[in-house]
Each structure stands twice: as structure tokens, then as C-alpha cells.
Write a structure and sequence with these properties.
416 residues, alpha/beta, four-stranded parallel β-sheet
Length: 416
């Protein structure tokens, strides 16, 4: 697939459709745009004599990797592919490079801090620590708090055995390996618990993958070689489960997009095409062939009246539609307002960089205004960093859709 993207380069007709959908172009005039920083820059690079260095504009670091340019291209060219590829070659200041390295390795810090979550969250709030972070280019904003991993299967063993016997009569149980991602693992582990309970209620046999990072922070910050190493390790593990008949399920859109597209497009990981065919977003799996039995929800509990569902860019980029919104509308939420036109602006680590913080807020401005104008009291979104950004700029309750659904599950004894 990497070769396919290279071959698609000449399909770029310079129509500039990608520019009209780029949230950075709309809010930051110095940014040349995805067409110029992607396909055009790549053409220039290829036209250079061997050994001749092509200077890469530092403004390329303002690409958020939101994928909206890819979705907009009428000829299937992926400007983000070239943007990320060339971002790895961009020359930046040493301090900025160090800051980006720290953000790219959030898995390391998250794994350590979640072992002593109160201490980790407390340290990040200390004035001297904030000053140091500001000095190296971190945004002056609150980081999401860390929480310890307390995942425990809640379904009793006897009940599980009885259910499995019943399922054998109806057909084979689906085997699922659930990959939580960094945010759920280190900042909101209740997402893991909720996802597993919903999958089990939907008659899936679930295993939780060890906490790990999909590599998106590394990709977005230009560490392609290291991202490739992560991808190869993860792919090898996943393929072992796939051979045993497992489906790989994620609840983070960025993880899903990395496994489905970026591993094969950018990193050229062997057998990534096979992997992509077995990756499912959680609601994508539940919606497939009506896998979600609606009787698992408490019909006597009053539905949520009015909520705003923000579709993250990386979920929209997967082209699966919005199965989560469909399920919520048909189960627990009345008058769900679904909006996929706006980017929240944070784009993973992008909004945690000092020079990009105001731009991230400007990009998300239309979304924040739409939420406030809707008069809702709750926002629902699948992306952890989207939650952080929306919560900060609207001061509203923001929840992952699995947490919303979990509140309506029947009790384990079948009660209400």
C-alpha cells in the first residue's frame, strides 16, 4: 500500500479542494496547506538531483494529521501521507524537538504515572513543574488526570458458563481482543470496564490486550522509524489472535485508523493488509449484522433527553458511517444531535504545544459555539483528547459513548 500512495502522487490535479477542508488553512494563514506541503513538496523532492537537500518549511509542523484533506480529495490522493512523511525531515529547534519527543512517548509517562496516579496528577499541577514544561514549549493548560487501572470482569463465572451454553445453541460466540489505547488505559480506565461489559452483554468472549500505544503520537510528531517498530510488534501480536479466530476491537478512533490505514500506508508493515481486515471500532462490530441485542438495556430507565455527539476526525476518516450514533439513538438517547462538520482542534498532542494552543482553540471555535447554541447538557464523543478539549472550552459533561450505554445495561442478575 505504501507503493500505491507513491503511485497516486500524479493524481493530484492541484484543484485545492483539500485546502477548503483543512482546519489549519482556515485559521492560520502562514500554513501553505495540504496540497503544497504534501504532493507538491514531494514532486519537488523527487525532481531534485540525488544528494541535493530540499529545505522543508517549518510550517509543516502545523499539520494536525486530522485526515480531512484525504477525505476531501476527489482522486484518492492522501496529502496527509506526504505531510507526515516530510514532517519527519523538517528541521526544528532542539527544544521543540525535545518537547515533541516527550509528547510522542506519552505511553511511557502514562504507564509510570498511572501506577501512582494521585502523585502523577499532583506533580503535573505544581507551579515549578508547569514552569519547566512551559520553558520547553508545552501549552499552559491542565493535562488529563491519571487513574490506576482497576479493570475487573464483573460477570460471575457461573453465569458466564450458563450464558456460553445458551450461546452455543444459538451459534458460536464471537471472540474479541479489545485494545483500549493510551487514554482509556491511563486516564479513564472506566472506559475499559464499560466496553468489556457491553461486549460481554452482546455475547462476545472478550480478552483485554495489554496496555500499549498504537503509535499515532509518534507518527504525528515525525518519529516514523520508531512508530514502525511499534507497529511491527503490535501487528505480530494481533495476527496471533487473528489466527485463533479473534476480531480486534478498539474504542479509540485514532487507534482504529492507525491499525486500518496508517500501518499499511505509512509504515509498510508486513501483513498490515490482513490486520486491517480484522480491525473493528467497537460500535462498528456491534452494528454489524445487528450484533447488539437491545434487550440488554433497561427499558424502564428514562432516556437521556438531548445530547450532542461530536464525531472525531479520525472516526469520520474511516468511512464506516456513525454506528455509535445510530445505536445511541435507538437505545438510550432522545434527540441526539450528531455533528461531523467540525474539528475540536486538539488533534492528539497538537493542542498541548505552546505555539499551537491558541490555534487549536480557534480551530475548535465553531464546534464549541455549536455545542453552546444547542443548549445541551451533555456532549458525547469517542476520542479521549477531544473530551479534554471540549470539556475545557464548554465546561460541560463530556462522556465516551460506551460510558453512556453502560449506565443503561441491565444488572447482572437480569434485574433493573
Amino acid at each position: 500500500m505504501k507503493q500505491v500512495q507513491e503511485a497516486n502522487l500524479d493524481y493530484c490535479l492541484k484543484c485545492s479542494t483539500c485546502h477548503t477542508q483543512c482546519p489549519v488553512v482556515l485559521n492560520f494563514l502562514p500554513f501553505p496547506g495540504p496540497k503544497h506541503m504534501g504532493p507538491e513538496l514531494e514532486r519537488l523532492r523527487l525532481s531534485k538531483k540525488q544528494g541535493e537537500v530540499l529545505k522543508i518549511d517549518e510550517n509543516l509542523t502545523y499539520c494536525t494529521n486530522c485526515k480531512r484533506c484525504d477525505m476531501a480529495c476527489p482522486h484518492g490522493v492522501k496529502p496527509s501521507y506526504y505531510n507526515i512523511k516530510n514532517k519527519a525531515k523538517a528541521k526544528t529547534a532542539a527544544v521543540q524537538k525535545f518537547r515533541d519527543w516527550i509528547l510522542a512517548h506519552n505511553y511511557w509517562w502514562g504507564r509510570s504515572a498511572s501506577k501512582v496516579p494521585r502523585l502523577g496528577s499532583f506533580i503535573l499541577k505544581l507551579a515549578p513543574v508547569k514552569l519547566v514544561l512551559k520553558t520547553i514549549g508545552m501549552a499552559d493548560r491542565d493535562f488529563p488526570e491519571y487513574k490506576g487501572q482497576r479493570f475487573k470482569p464483573k460477570i460471575q463465572k457461573e453465569q458466564t458458563q450458563k450464558e456460553q451454553k445458551g450461546h452455543k445453541k444459538q451459534g458460536e460466540q464471537k471472540k474479541v481482543l479489545y485494545f483500549p489505547g493510551c487514554y482509556a488505559s491511563f486516564n479513564q480506565p472506566e472506559i475499559i470496564q464499560a466496553a468489556v461489559e457491553i461486549l460481554e452483554a452482546a455475547r462476545c468472549q472478550v480478552e483485554v490486550a495489554p496496555s500499549g500505544c498504537c503509535g499515532t503520537p509518534l507518527l504525528s510528531n515525525g518519529f516514523l522509524v520508531e512508530a514502525g517498530s511499534w507497529a511491527k510488534r503490535i501487528t505480530a501480536v494481533f495476527l496471533e489472535y487473528i489466527e485463533k479466530g479473534y476480531k480486534i476491537v478498539v474504542s479509540c478512533p485514532s487507534c482504529g485508523l492507525a491499525f486500518k490505514d496508517e500501518y499499511r500506508d505509512l509504515l509498510a508493515v508486513e501483513q498490515s493488509e490482513l490486520l486491517s481486515q480484522h480491525i473493528y471500532e467497537l460500535f462498528e462490530l456491534l452494528a454489524e449484522e445487528e450484533n447488539l441485542p437491545f434487550e440488554i438495556f433497561n427499558k424502564d430507565k428514562a432516556k437521556i433527553k438531548g445530547a450532542f455527539y461530536h464525531i472525531p476526525c479520525h472516526l469520520k476518516a474511516q468511512g464506516m458511517g456513525f454506528p455509535g450514533a445510530h445505536i445511541l439513538k435507538n437505545t438510550v438517547v432522545e434527540d441526539l444531535l450528531v455533528e461531523d462538520s467540525f474539528c475540536c482542534g486538539i488533534s492528539g498532542t497538537f493542542g498541548f504545544k505552546r505555539e499551537k494552543q491558541d490555534l487549536a482553540a480557534a480551530i475548535g471555535g465553531s464546534l464549541f459555539n455549536a455545542i453552546k447554541d444547542s443548549k445541551v447538557k451533555m456532549v458525547i464523543t469517542d476520542c479521549g483528547t477531544c473530551m479534554v478539549q471540549i470539556r475545557q472550552h464548554t465546561c460541560l459533561e463530556v462522556k465516551h459513548p460506551v460510558l453512556v450505554l453502560k449506565d443503561f445495561l441491565q444488572t447482572q442478575k437480569g434485574g433493573k
